């Protein structure tokens, strides 16, 4: 794939930012509203939970394999375009599928392809930010801002249109990602010119080498525990806050505060992040998770929820960005995609999936006290981060 005409008029930072924006315009609708779509298609609550959890649980097995496949191309943007088209096909097929199994299969295809995009684009953005001297958090934060816009827009659209518009929106967004990949992304190579391309067997061998690296595995598990501890919050915070008497608009504000501090952290905290280093950031993320989820377990009043929501900058953004930097540093260039895919598959996949499956019974049995299980996950993440800091020293 050659460089498209006119792409050079924009900086790499701007082109990568556009990719994140288009991608998160889809995620900003699928994450909050896809359950609404599945309910409109006749699925029960238990069936919806299963459909949502299966792609998360499958990511540790499918994501790294797709990343090894992606590293077999010459340009990094080629598999991005193909995966985005695969996601669009899965989402489009949902409109024709019927019943639980049909919708599950389509959603599994769509989400597996879409979530594999994240570690692959992160590899490009991290490398470009280092070479070109820009802050990785700026293009990534633009994606989070687009998430908010899409979330609010779909809320207004659903007031006048049927839930079928949700599938149409996320399909169009996936097609948009494919177009941006081909027409806009910089033509970064998987390997530098003159470096021999590894065969499939060698790429799989590199993946096995990563899994035998104890420091790498510790970093991935630690980040996964801290990120996975958000499961109860993602699934049941709105229901619990409504039970506390907090209005729906105020719940939207609380969620907005969490995303806003995430964006602010990514955009403006780069000098501080570099000074701290990724190991210390993980320690802060684990400590903040232990504090935040313990406090939520005791149904804090509205005024206290705002500073607790601001901790999202540490529990999510700091630990997420720290894990990216650690994995980039620990993995050889030829295994960069596979390394980030393993990290993403565990933190935003398996750990979050297990937490999501556990959250339903925890909510039914313990209500807000279910957050204590998330606090325990955060505490384990804090222990892992402390050990990681000692090792890397």
Summarize this entry quickly.
The chain is an all-alpha fold and 393 residues long. The chain has helices at 12-40, 45-70, 77-94, 99-132, 137-157, 164-183, 200-212, 214-228, 231-243, 248-268, 270-276, 278-296, 302-310, 312-330, 336-366, 371-392.
Please, could you describe this protein's structure?
This protein has 393 residues and is mainly alpha-helical. It is 81% helix and 0% strand. The chain is built from 16 helices and no strands. The longest helix is centred in the first third of the chain and has 34 residues, at 99-132. The model is unreliable at 1-7 (pLDDT under 50).
Question: Which structural traits does this protein have?
Answer:
single chain, 393 residues, mainly alpha
Poorly predicted tracts of residues: 1-7
- Regarding quaternary structure, what we see is single chain
Distance between the termini: 43 Å
Classify the secondary structure makeup into a structural class.
mainly alpha
Largest sheet, strands/sense/barrel? none
Strand content: under 5%
Mean pLDDT: 85
How many beta-strand segments? Answer: 0
Please specify the SSE layout and strand pairing:
Elements (H helix, E strand, L loop, with lengths): L11 H29 L4 H26 L6 H18 L4 H34 L4 H21 L6 H20 L16 H13 L1 H15 L2 H13 L4 H21 L1 H7 L1 H19 L5 H9 L1 H19 L5 H31 L4 H22 L1
């Amino acid at each position: 794939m050659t460089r498209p005409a006119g792409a050079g008029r924009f900086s790499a930072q701007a082109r990568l930012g556009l990719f994140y924006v288009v991608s998160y315009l889809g995620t900003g609708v699928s994450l909050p509203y896809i359950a609404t779509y599945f309910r409109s298609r006749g699925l029960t609550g238990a069936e919806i939970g299963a459909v949502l959890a299966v792609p998360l649980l499958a990511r540790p097995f499918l994501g790294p394999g797709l990343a090894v496949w992606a590293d077999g191309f010459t340009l990094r943007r080629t598999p991005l375009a193909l995966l985005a088209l695969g996601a669009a096909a899965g989402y489009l097929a949902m409109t024709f599928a019927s019943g639980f199994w049909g919708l599950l299969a389509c959603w599994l295809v769509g989400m597996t392809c879409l979530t594999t995009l994240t570690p692959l684009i992160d590899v490009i953005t991290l490398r470009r930010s280092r070479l070109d001297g820009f802050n990785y958090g700026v293009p990534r934060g633009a994606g989070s801002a687009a998430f908010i816009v899409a979330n609010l827009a779909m809320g207004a659209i659903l007031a006048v249109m049927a839930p079928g518009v949700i599938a149409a929106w996320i399909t169009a967004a996936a097609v948009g990602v494919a177009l941006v990949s081909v027409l806009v992304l910089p033509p970064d190579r998987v390997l530098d010119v003159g470096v021999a391309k590894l065969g499939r067997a060698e790429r799989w061998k590199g993946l096995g080498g990563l899994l035998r690296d104890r420091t790498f595995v510790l970093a991935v598990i630690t980040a996964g525990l801290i990120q996975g501890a958000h499961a109860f919050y993602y699934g049941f915070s709105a229901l619990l806050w409504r039970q506390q008497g907090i209005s729906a608009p105020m719940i939207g504000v609380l969620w907005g505060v969490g995303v806003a501090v995430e964006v602010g952290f990514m955009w403006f905290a780069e000098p501080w992040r570099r000074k701290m280093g990724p190991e210390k950031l993980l320690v802060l993320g684990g400590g903040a998770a232990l504090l935040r989820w313990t406090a939520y377990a005791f149904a804090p009043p509205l005024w206290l929820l705002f500073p607790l929501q601001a901790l999202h900058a540490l529990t999510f953004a700091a630990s997420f960005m720290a894990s990216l930097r650690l994995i980039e540093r620990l993995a050889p260039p030829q295994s960069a995609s596979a390394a980030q895919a393993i990290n993403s598959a565990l933190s935003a996949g398996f750990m979050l999936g297990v937490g999501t499956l556990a959250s339903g019974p925890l909510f039914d049995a313990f209500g807000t006290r279910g957050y204590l299980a998330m606090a325990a996950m955060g505490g384990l993440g804090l222990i892992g981060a402390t050990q990681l800091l000692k090792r890397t020293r």
